[in-house]
Design goal:
Blueprint lengths: L1 E13 L4 E13 L3 E5 L6 H8 L7 E6 L2 E2 L5 H10 L1 E5 L10 H10 L5 H14 L15 H12 L6 E5 L7 H16 L3 E6 L2 H4 L4 E6 L2 E2 L2
Parallel strand pairs: 3-8, 3-9, 6-7, 7-8
Antiparallel strand pairs: 1-2, 1-4, 4-5, 9-10
Helix pairs in contact: 3-4, 3-5, 5-6
The structure holds adenosine-5'-diphosphate and magnesium ion.
Magnesium ion binds next to α1.
């Protein structure tokens, strides 16, 4: 079954003197439980595509179907609900909140909808154990390594048990050891049945996914 589908998706950035065709008629079919990499050089449109799928930005035309629902038919609160409950995000620059501890950062996806504390704490502690960041739970992002920051971000992404993990260059700021750790974590998430969409400019990283799609100038390369 398809869990993410884009149909003739277009997103253009209209500048004063020219237009950037960042996503130019992309048709994607991503199956449930797939581990797919979208690879392309810098500026090829990868982040724009992922940000459209995530509803972080709007698109110009076409359609996105998430888990059988057309997102154009949803209102803002329904989109927010899907984003919070069904999607988990991992970014190149971690996007942790500097004023919160590791534990608190991991809890953010539940805190924002005022989930009860005890089950939240239990879930967060499980994730902290799983990703070997339990001992640093009360540290702040500035006090921990890049690998630990990204493991914190992955734990946060999993807090609401999302169906789909969307990772935009998750290893882009990591050394080779931490890169391997994060890739192993993504492979593990795939093996436990989640859909993983990985974006990277690095062909060697992309090759670790089960399927690779190349994009160039906003189009899928055949
Ligand atoms: P990638 O993630 O593959 O590096 P992006 O999706 O970030 O590519 O960018 C695709 C193209 O769209 C690039 O030419 C980039 O400069 C342009 N672009 C991205 N975001 C914006 C924006 N907010 N305004 C104008 N142009 C943008
Ligand atoms: Mg990008």
């Amino acid at each position: 079954m398809e869990i993410v589908k884009t149909i003739n998706l277009k997103k253009y950035y209209k500048m004063d003197n020219y237009t950037v065709k960042a996503v130019d008629n992309i048709n994607l079919n991503i199956n449930n439980h797939e581990f797919i990499a979208i690879v392309g050089s810098s500026g090829s449109g990868k982040s724009t595509l992922l940000n459209c799928i995530s509803s972080f930005i709007s698109y110009d035309s076409g359609e996105i179907d998430l888990n059988g629902t057309k997102i154009s038919e949803l209102d803002q609160s329904e989109i927010a609900e899907i984003r919070n409950k069904k999607l988990g995000f991992v970014f190149q620059d971690f996007m942790l909140l500097d004023g919160l501890t590791v534990f608190e950062n991991v809890c953010v996806p539940r805190v924002i909808h005022e989930a009860p504390y005890k089950p939240m704490e239990k879930k967060a502690k499980e994730l902290l154990q799983m990703f070997d960041i339990y001992k640093i739970a009360s540290k702040y992002p500035a006090e921990i390594s890049g690998g630990q920051r990204q493991r914190t971000a992955v734990a946060r992404a999993l807090m609401n048990d999302p169906l789909i993990i969307l990772a935009d260059e998750p290893t882009g700021n990591l050394d080779s050891n931490s890169t391997k750790e994060i890739m192993d974590i993504l492979k593990g998430l795939h093996n436990e049945g989640r859909t993983v969409i990985l974006i990277t400019h690095d062909n060697d990283i992309a090759a670790q996914a089960k399927r690779v799609i190349k994009i160039k100038d906003g189009k899928v390369e055949s």
